[in-house]
Specification:
By secondary structure, this protein is of the alpha+beta class. The chain has two domains: 162 residues, 2-Layer Sandwich (Ribosomal Protein S5, domain 2); 114 residues, Alpha-Beta Plaits (2-Layer Sandwich). It has ten helices and twelve strands.
């Protein structure tokens, strides 16, 4: 997470998106949530978050009208939790410049919240450790602890148990965000008992540990993709388009609705992008990002 500090009590941060290289739903918990085993990967697609002190209150602005500007906003929640935890009377103004599409499975909102937690920790000299910041983050969303960590991580529990892995590196990635979104609770609801531990024999962790990037790419898997296709068969069509354009693999990330494809080289990816952009309005070229 890049940051720029200046002397007028402001800080600017880049907050990065993530993709799920792997997501296996283990079981349903008594609290209604699900235990998962997931490999999350930070990517270069990012938003910009500008934080400035103000006299009072929390003011959110954003260039994307789909982003709420009230207490529902993840940045608002992060700022409020920090103000309450440290009894801070100062206000804060937060401006978000969006590039990451919303409701996409890319952790855009979670990344923004993580940026605010890190930014206010530095701006207000709070001295929080990464673990203390994660304690705040999990109260906002399951992906926030990963967004605070970045890189390549194994995420377990509800996503809050983070183990850093060797860096996975891939330079040629296309992401397509269709015009529809998928409800995360509905996606999980459509996972059947037979689909729990569906990918328990997957070897992706071994491939990452051995720096075997090609086999990592072709081992990507996501149980929620199976559930999402039941709800939105168009996900399969997007995967077919990516694969037909030369991707060595494709996968829906998180609970969707974005789908990504890995390409062997830049020329192939650019050719694919040129064709796919004729069909899809929200299409992005990116690469992995690692701390």
């Amino acid at each position: 997470m890049k940051e720029i500090m200046n002397r007028n009590k402001g800080i600017k941060l880049s907050s990065y998106a993530k993709i799920n290289l792997f997501l296996d739903v283990i079981n349903k918990r008594q609290d209604g949530y699900h235990n998962i085993k997931s490999v999350m990967q930070e990517i270069d697609l990012h938003d910009e978050v500008q934080i400035n002190e103000s006299e009072s209150g929390i003011i959110i602005s954003c260039d994307n009208y789909n982003v709420p500007l009230d207490e529902k906003n993840t940045c608002y929640k992060a700022a409020m939790l920090i103000k309450e935890k440290f009894n801070i009377n100062l206000g804060v103004s937060i401006s978000i410049k969006k590039t990451i599409p919303t409701e996409a499975g890319l952790a855009g909102g979670s990344g923004n919240a993580a940026a605010v937690i890190k930014g206010l920790n530095k701006l207000w000299n709070l001295g929080m450790s990464i673990d203390e910041m994660k304690e705040i983050g999990i109260k906002i969303g399951a992906d926030v602890p990963f967004c605070l960590t970045g890189g390549t991580c194994l995420c377990e529990g509800v996503g809050d148990k983070i183990t850093e892995l060797k860096s996975f590196k891939w330079d040629n990635i296309i992401i397509i965000k269709p015009d529809f979104s998928i409800s995360t609770p509905l996606a999980y609801k459509n996972v059947t008992d037979k689909e729990y531990n569906y990918y328990e024999n997957n070897k992706i962790l071994d491939y990452i540990n051995n720096n075997d990037y090609h086999n990592t790419c072709i081992s990507v898997a996501n149980t929620l993709e199976i559930a999402a296709i039941k709800l939105c068969p168009q996900i399969s069509l997007i995967k077919d388009d990516l694969n037909s354009s030369g991707a060595i693999s494709s996968l829906m990330t998180g609970s969707g609705s974005s789908v990504y494809g890995f390409y062997d080289n830049n020329a192939l990816m650019l050719a694919a992008y040129g064709e796919l952009a004729k069909k899809y309005n929200k299409i992005f070229i990116t690469k992995t990002a690692n701390n």
